[in-house]
Amino acid sequence: MKSLRVALAGLLLAVLATLVRAEDVLYLFIWNTYLSEDTVRRFETQCRCRLNQDFYSDNEEMLAKLEAGAIGYDLIVPTGNAVETLLRKKALRPLDKTKLPNLKNLKTEFRDPWYDPGLRYAVPYATSVTLLGYNATRLAERGLPTDTWALIFEPQHLEKLKGKVTVLNSQRELMAAAMKYLGYSVQETDPARWEEAKRMILRAKPYWANFSNSTYIKDLAIGNIWVAHGYSSDMYRAQQDALEARRPFRIDFRTPKEGAVLAVDSFVLHQSGGRPDLAHQFINFMLDGANAADVSNLIGAGNPNAAATPHILPEIARNPGIFPPSEELLRLEMLRDFDPKTRRALSRMWTEIKVR
Amino acid sequence: MTRGGRLFGLWTAALAVYAFLYLPLAVVVIFSFNDSLLNAEWVGFTTRWYGQLFENTEMLRAAANSLIIALGAATLATVLGSMAGIALQRWQSGFLRALPFLVLAPVAMPEILLGVSLLLFFRQVLDLTLGLVSILVAHITFSIGFVAIIVRVRLAGLDESLFEAARDLGASPWQTFRWVTLPLILPGILAGFLMSFTLSIDDFVITFFVAGVGVTTLPLQIYSMIKVAVSPEVNAVSTLLMALTLTLIALASKLAPDTLRGRA
Amino acid sequence: MVRWSEWAGTVAPGFICVTESRQAGRSPGPGENLQKWLVSLPPTLFLLAFLVAPALLMVVASFQQVGDFGGLLPVLENGQSTLSLEAYRFFFGDWIYAEIFLRSFLVATATTLLCLLLAYPLALLIATGGKRHRDLLVLLVILPLASNFLIRIYAWMIVLGPAELLYTPFAVIVGMVYVHLPFMILPLYTNLESHDPALLEAAQDLGAGAWTRFWRITLPLSLPGVWSGSALVFIPVLGMFAIPELLGGTRDILIGNLIKEQFLDNRDWPLGSTLSILLTAAVLLLAWLAAWAGRPRRGRA
Predict the structure, then answer these.
(1) With DSSP H G I counted as helix, E B as strand and the rest as coil, what are the percentages for chain C, rounded to 5?
(2) Which pLDDT tens digit goes with each residue over C231-286?
(3) Residue A213 is nearest to which of B119, B227, B255, comparing CB atoms?
(4) Nearest chain B Cα to C33, which residue?
(5) Are residues C113 and C179 in the same domain?
(6) Measured distance CA(C41)–CA(C54) in Å, rounded
(7) Under a CB-based contact definition with an 8 Å cutoff, are residues B39 and B232 in contact?
């Protein structure tokens, strides 16, 4: 019994010791796998501080956490619409551009986003496109097209794909895909057009396997699923996994010709953060070409940083699914948040879609 | 049907259930040694996932968080829960009539409700930063009930005359508790502690709602890994977790075999 | 070896034990009042603060309005109350939400029945078999609980994937049954173990066959165990969201998913709170029904 007590006391002391030890820590709330261990280590040696990362896998999840009182994060990496939300809630701290000399590295087309004109709060870090990933071998065998949303909405194609399709479990993303296919804007709020999209989705739904936000990466790579609606960086991951595992087929991805959703993720400083100095230091570090290229090489994300281009692997830099050519860029749209009433109405429709 | 035939039938059914319980666990363990990132089929034997695991600082930090939280929550829940158990058994008048319901509610309630209401509460009333404290409080809340019930059941099985005898011999309430009640209910208390510990270290739903800055627990880490695309590291970490729990159980029965075994 | 059989199964029967009022109450002696307060106040206060208060807050939130960018509008704005029944009206405005409630209850019922079917023979075997292996057999039931909940679900994804059964209602039920089975086995076992073997022997002496003995003695006596096991399975299933999300197909949406969606995807806390309140009400109603059905009819042994 005595040894037990000694052990417990020792444990308690150890816990206290870790709590008391003062340390420079930068708290980061960031997407999963958005930073390589290597980059983290380099920054930690440079700043002589520690980087603490908490992860989220969805903007809404992140906003809910912040709304619920998660404070103390120095840096967050929200997508454009979430930046707008955070700005409107006055949750962000303006950037001190004198501390960000590397800001000049950003491509011109990313210097004046609608959610933050003139980059006063947000520094673009990575981009992705919501598109279709597919098993190129299986689709070719069946003579199916790969460059259109019709693949997941039209029964004539779906007949040959029954149970082999997943779509995102996100009301906004799926509606956006439907809207784009129907030739409308992703910000469409006309009830008649919503109704039209709903009917189309319900017609296609029996052919889909499930609504998935993540498992499709693995399902594509294994071969369980042949077509997935999802993010370009996920599709890149599935492609690489399938290659590494020497699967007997090829995974590819492509932006449908009707257009799609573009997401731009940016670094922002949260009001509650205690170390804006370290946060600026980190952003400037990440704006450096070699460091900025990491996110593209690591997860196949698009890159708003011009200085990064020479450091990006050629096969990634050439991939139109990751770096959309300029004529395609025009057909891409970013999502903007709806007001609460519209959100509730959309959520009701979403529930109906799920139930039927 | 003969007795032998019946027993045979029962055993077959039982073995089938055990197979059902252990099939997925076996899959997890076996595939933690599979030399394939995708884990779709068996490719070859490797231990590299374990190697990668020990280099994964995020994962190790999450494991440390989980252990600290589980120890803290289990300790406090055991103290509070034992008190509640004793109160349940001894007094049932006045406001204490409501205690059984307070104790049972978190045990019976769907986890998501507790998580959501605590989230609202921390934010709206306490203005508390989500983090270590909020997770601890949440875990204690749902563990108290389990401890209280176990202790109460233990107490109910004891002979009331023991306490009367102690009192008649002039023992103070504290002495009665320290030298009579406590040793007798210790197995229940230990069991409650183990149960709270297990519940806390495995809790995902409630922690998901109340976790905050810098405190990612192991289940949360695993969830985000599963969401992103599972690598066999997940299998490796859960295999280790199972091994750890087994060790804890074995240790518990070694450390205090008599108290755990002894009936009142 | 730890006496698993002694403690593991106590939780569920504890439901009955705790709710049942004690017959022989002593009148509190002098000085016992202080003791009573010292012992009972800390846990009571803790639970009032972190269980009751949050629950009440959720009730208030269900009447509040959504803020422009999520969260909640303050209850009072310019001296005017912003509370309304809007979320409730929205819920009862059409059948969709009621349909999801109904569907969740069906899934919970199916899960409970399947668990019962699988658990009963096993519990009977452990309870009536030799004492020697009892601890080990019970431990084997508990052990799966010691591995991470999500990992167990993920393991089923590996198992069901190649069989083309993944993303079906079947997969959801398998996952639900798998996760909750131990909570059915343990209370059943504890109950069955407490039966007096003399009863069965007497029945045998009177010429009752094996089936008669089971139907007329074992089963009726085990009903309290069946009820508490059912409660421990049925209620958690209602709030589960991870299993339908990971194993289910395009139609498998349950209340748990709906609630989670309101809080984490849709920033609609009032509607989420309303759904939670209605679920709580349904659960309380059921718990009350179960307690009523499982009330001890004769004095407990």
Answers:
(1) 75, 5, 25
(2) 889 988 988 888 998 899 888 899 999 998 888 888 888 999 999 999 988 888 87
(3) B227
(4) B91
(5) yes
(6) 19
(7) yes
- Within a domain: residue C8? no
C239 and B111 within 8 Å at the Cβ level: the answer is: yes
Average pLDDT, rounded, for chain A: 90
* Pairs across B and C, CB distance < 8 A: 281
C130 and C42 in one domain?
no
User: Which range among A132-141, A248-257, B230-239, C65-74 shows the weakest confidence by mean pLDDT?
Assistant: C65-74
Helix (H), strand (E), coil (C) string for chain B? CCHHHHHHHHHHHHHHHHHHHHHHHHHHHHHCCECCCCCCCCCCECCHHHHHHHHCHHHHHHHHHHHHHHHHHHHHHHHHHHHHHHHHHHCCCHHHHHHHHHHHHHHHCCHHHHHHHHHHHHHHHHCCCCCHHHHHHHHHHHHHHHHHHHHHHHHHCCCHHHHHHHHHCCCCHHHHHHHHHHHHHHHHHHHHHHHHHHHHHHCCHHHHHHCCCCCCCHHHHHHHHHHHCCCHHHHHHHHHHHHHHHHHHHHHHHHCHHHHHCCC
Q: Is C88 on the interface with A (CB under 8 A)?
A: no
**Same structural domain, C55 and C189:** no
Q: All domains of chain A, ordered by start, with CATH?
A: 23-125+264-325 (3.40.190.10), 128-261+335-355 (3.40.190.10)
Query: Do A232 and A322 contact (CB within 8 A), yes or no?
Result: yes
Interface of C with A in 92-151 (CB under 8 A): 96-97, 99-100, 103
Q: Could you give the count of Cα atoms lying within 13 Å of B49 in the half-sphere of its Cβ? A: 26
- C47 plus C142 within the same structural domain: no
- C169 found inside a domain: yes
Of B57, B120, B212, the CB nearest to A70: B212
Computed on alpha carbons and rounded to an integer, the radius of gyration of chain A in Å comes to: 22
A221–B38 C-beta distance less than 8 A: yes
Q: Write down the domain spans for chain B.
A: 1-27, 58-261
| Maximum pairwise Cα distance, chain B | 72
Q: How many domains, in total, are found in chain C?
A: 2
> Are C123 and C228 contained in the same domain?
yes
A–B interface: beta-carbon pairs under 8 A = 85
Using an 8 Å CB-CB cutoff, list chain C residues near B260.
2-3
Flag whether pLDDT at B51 surpasses 50: yes
A210, A347, A351 member nearest C250 (Cβ): A210
CATH assignment of the domain containing C131: 1.10.3720.10
Chosen for mutation from A52, A58, A231 (greatest number of chain B CBs closer than 10 Å) is A52
Q: What average pLDDT does this structure show over C13-22?
A: 48
CA atoms within 13 A of residue A324's CA, in its CB half-sphere:
26
B186 touches chain A (CB under 8 A): no
Q: Could you tell me which CATH number the domain at B58-261 has?
A: 1.10.3720.10
Element (H, E) at C77: strand C76-77
> What's the domain range around C63?
36-84
Supply A223's token pair: 């071969």
> Tokens standing for A314?
């050629």
Radius of gyration of chain C (CA): 23
Give the tens place of pLDDT for each residue, A156-201: 999 999 999 999 998 899 999 999 999 999 999 999 999 999 999 9
Chain B positions in Cβ-Cβ contact with residue C145 (cut-off 8 Å):
198, 202
For residues C54 and C105, membership in a common domain is answered with: no
Taking CB atoms and an 8 Å cutoff, what residues of chain C touch B21? 140-141, 144, 178, 181-182
**Where does the pLDDT of residue C22 fall: very low under 50, low under 70, confident under 90, or very high at 90 and above?**
very low
CA nearest neighbour of C301 among C194, C226, C198, C203? C194
Residue C125 sits in the same domain as residue C188 = yes
Q: Which of residues 153-212 of C touch A (CB under 8 A)?
A: 157, 161, 164, 166-167
